[in-house]
Specification:
Elements lengths: L1 E9 L2 E8 L7 E10 L2 H8 L2 H4 L10 E9 L12 E4 L2 E2 L5 H4 L12 E2 L18 E5 L3 E3 L6 H20 L8 E4 L3 H11 L5 E5 L2 H9 L4 E4 L6 H8 L7 E4 L8
Parallel strand pairs: 10-11, 10-13, 11-12
Antiparallel strand pairs: 1-2, 3-4, 3-8, 4-5, 5-9, 6-7
Helix pairs in contact: 4-5
GO molecular function: adenyl nucleotide binding; anion binding; oxidoreductase activity
Protein name: Alcohol dehydrogenase GroES domain protein
Keywords: Carbohydrate metabolism, NADP, Oxidoreductase
Amino acid sequence: MKIKGIVFKGNRESELKEFQISAIGREQVVIKTIMSTICGSDLHFYRASPEKLGERKNLIAGHEAVGIIYDISSNENEILRKGDRVIAFHRYGCFKCKMCKKGWPQYCENGMSSTLVLGQLYNPWRSSGTFADYFLAPIGVIFRVPNEVDNETASILGCNGITAYQIIRDLRVNDSSSVAITGLGPLGLVAATFLREITDNIIGIETNENRLKLAEKIGINKLIRYHSNVNIENEIRRLNDGSLVDIGIDFSGVPGRS
């Protein structure tokens, strides 16, 4: 089937192009896009030079989307059906090796770690970017969206939401855990929102005043306004009855910050 998708050409230029999706393979779905939101990493590629983009100049961009299952392979299961409203997690692997089964497809032992965008480098495609009227994805990364979740929220959950949830799940956070989050950007704030449903003992660490205000709005009251003169360890002890926290999660991406 023919689809139309947006590619990033470099230096803040984009283009709408036509692509061909071949017959879908086993355990694949084609999703009709309702909405695809823009992630910070999308902006990174949008602003990059053509040289840095490399092969990405020829690939449909985007990886956060909500849509309706338009077609599904013959290996249809009891969970997913045509017409279901779904999201797709943006990263996947072979689905079979030890690391993929543990939920770490970026370390796929069979060398098949991929993203929705990079899935277009395979022949035939394993997946495709979401800045398109339709996109292709493996069944293993598809999640049906509950009726009470709106499209805007669902679209973001396909990247930030599942990433944050996986970390919290793997760290086994419980109602007695004390948690410090470094970096209250989009991912950190989503994680903080989830954590508020589990524990009240959350400390947020951030440099940006606007993000600190957003954290306060979602109920994170223990906040550290980080700057070079702040001793993080002392501040955490001050806010946590003299002790360090049980769990620290870094979403800043700044070396040495966590």
